[in-house]
Amino acid sequence: MKIKTFARITCGGLDKVVNEFCSQSSVEVLEIQANSTWLFITATVIYQDN
Question: Listing from the earlier edge strand, what are the strands of the sheet with 2-8?
Fold first, then answer.
């Protein structure tokens, strides 16, 4: 099990990078957790390699 954390200022930018990462055929996504602060929106992807 591995984790990858993404942080962006806008939701659109975050969606794009998370979707690109999750669409890789070598990655099996187990869970995605999201959080926001006053400046950033973050997403942590918990995954394992196929």
Answer: 2-8, 41-49, 27-36
pLDDT digits (tens, 9 = 90+) for 27-44: 999 999 999 999 999 999
Q: Quickly state the pLDDT bin for 50 (edges 50, 70, 90).
A: confident
Q: Are the C-beta atoms of residues 28 and 50 closer than 8 Å to each other? A: yes
Cα distance between residue 18 and residue 45, in whole Å: 8
